[in-house]
Amino acid sequence: MREFAHAEGKPRCNCGIFGIFGHPKAAVQTYYGLHALQHRGQEASGIVTREYVEDKKRWRFNVHKGAGLVTEVYRDERILRDVLQGNGAIGHNRYSTTGASDNNANIQPLVVNYRDGNLAVAHNGNLTNFRTLRQSLQDKGTIFQSTSDTEVLLHLVAHSRQEQQIYQIREALEAVEGAFSIVMLTDNALIAARDPHGFRPLALGKLGTSFVVASETCAFDIIGAEYVCDVEPGEILVIDDEAVESGAVKSYHLAKKSPSPHHCIFEYVYFSRPDSKIYGENVDKVRRKLGKLLAQESPVNKGEEGEKVVVISVPDSSNTATLGFVTESQLAGHEVKMELGLIRSHYVGRTFIAPDQNNREMKVKTKFNTVKGVLQGKKVVIVDDSIVRGTTSRQLVKLIKEAGPKEVHVRITSPPIKYPCHFGMDFPSKQELVANRCGGDVEQIREYLDVDSLAYLSLEKLLEAAPQENGRSYCTACFSGVYPAPIDDDASKDANDV
């Protein structure tokens, strides 16, 4: 889901999606699934359900969408109990972006009614040729209601001349380029699909006889569903009444193929929850390995007179990697210990007043505070997952230095981010990335952050940490600049202009 924006501090994954079919309380299960996926989108949320209206002998789609966190959007229990009726539902959590945050038309799922009935879609990813497709559709008289690339999919389905709906959807998906993990709801089915590269994760699960689909398996855990498998790259799953009765879903495949998948490796580094299983592997396991490999590549020597080095994580995304870093450091004979040197506030609102130019500094102080007794007079190693603009990291270092450490060292569990992403991560422009501004020179970045040492995990070791079985491969474009799928010139210009 692309809406032309730049992120602050950390890269953002634009959304999380969830779907369920064949459950009498589909909306309630979707609510809890979206709650578990809150980390993937915190600006808006929406749920669509399908309900059969007996007196009118037709299917009706019920919709509730709004800006805010999941608990805010569905605060009134009557929404789930009385409004969102039906045994099939899809839901979406969204990150808003510049120029679109105040446009409610962009809140997903998007819903239309066309010649073959109702159709709703929720999308995670970026369609890289959407400008070309959108212009072509507008030239044919199509009227768009949103600025989201996702709406293109609905119009492509409606314009298809295929007779069966599943082939209309397949034709639409074959027309788009880039990244898409989607759930669609029709009058008769729940449909899940991934692009041929498999950029973004999507998993299939079961809850009793019902089927569920979600961006991450942590959404299955909260409702007690069982993980079945990943939706394969280029696969379309159709879940209908027959699938619920037989326990077997129908599988179709896109004609377009990729020689190998290109899973977003940043899902392991930062996006996904550590308790999730994505691309067939536990995130926690991979993240710990990232920390271990970082300790091997860039150890920090012990302090003076045998004093232990204090290692702290930047909570919460680097917690498990820090555990791996400390474990490996200790095995190598380094005197290190992990401490809780930073405390994160989990009650920070989505917006707050920042009255002057110290906006970014106030954001850091609102989100984090130091444990001064842990840091004062110590040699401190900060383990974090990434550095994007560098401004937030610089403010974080400044905050830690106020606690009076002897030295401050930074270790990053991914390579320098030098290129924008076009496949579902909301990165700033190329010129705003600190690694690009410094020409990839780690020493210049160290000076900018004002720390005693700085080291990144190499791309080689990052790939070593990720599972490689069954021909798995990964998209590393944000580190390497090698894009595995074509990019529209306009889309590339948007991502690189300031």
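^ that was protein a. below is b, sequence first then the tokens
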Amino acid sequence: MKTTPFTHKHIALGAKMAEFAGYNMPISYTGINDEHATVRNSAGMFDVSHMGEFILKGENALDLIQRVTSNDASKLTVGKALYSCITNENGGIVDDLIIYCLEENKEYMLVVNASNIEKDWNWISKYNTKNVAMTNVSDATCLLAIQGPNATQLLQSLTNLDILNLKYYTFAQGTFAGVDNVIVSATGYTGSGGVEIYFENVDDAANKIWDTIINLGVKPIGLGARDTLRLEMGYCLYGNDIDDTTSPLEAGLGWITKFSKDFTAKAILEKQKAEGIKRKLVGFELLERGIPRHGYIIKDAAGNVIGNVTSGTQAPSLNKAVGLGYVTLENSSLDTEIFIDIRNNPVKAKVVKMPFN
């Protein structure tokens, strides 16, 4: 298994470790519910250094990004980022990612999922016909996500960057905790505010930044709570809710699918939009006891199979079981009664609006 520069920290702190995307990662420290509450109510720190980062440079860098991703990156100026996805030739999703503009029309950073680093690199390379300089800096890049309503207030003392006033999906670059060339980004996948910080582990930077943040009283958080936090917000997880067989329109990601430009799968998705999708990713809450899990069958009241669960949990902040799943379009309206097949027992649920509340 691969490690991150913080793996020894997790083990020393007694974290429950497990393999995730080929890395030895912390799943929990004090318990998922406790860690979930810490992020929702205060601030917690995730090691997400397993994520992938690519740097694309050159006069054709933007053209390449526009070709392989669905959102319109031409709108980005220095210090701004956007959420997007890479589409395949069948209209499916190769990956979802964040695109950072480091220099307008010249240099960008793509942040991709850990399990897709090689796949994404090969896919983008296939379309790189104009010699855009591509560098995979994943192994050299540390990424910590400090999330929660108190995160920026706690961290402001560590930098001369004005992170208290960073707008959502913008970033600043400068010195943080005495380490130069750190990107502080107002992004994250918890729905509780906070920042993500990117830096290279040179001159013991990883230990320095981790220890400084921990000494402020910020608690370390495992990937278990990251999953429950993102699920309460209705955020998709690649490999669960979206993959090579799901289209962004089916997944409710039409807002990052811009037909004003040319991109892979544009024609397929335009046709899908015109003809209408046949299934849709919805949020649901259970009305009876049970916990929905990935892969469980979804049925209608007559017992017909209408879809499947992609993510599910007992939501710690809400004290009820919620999930995401694809269902036929006719069963996707709010308040539609559906049934989750849990151990051959149909458990009643209803389609609800996201984020869950």
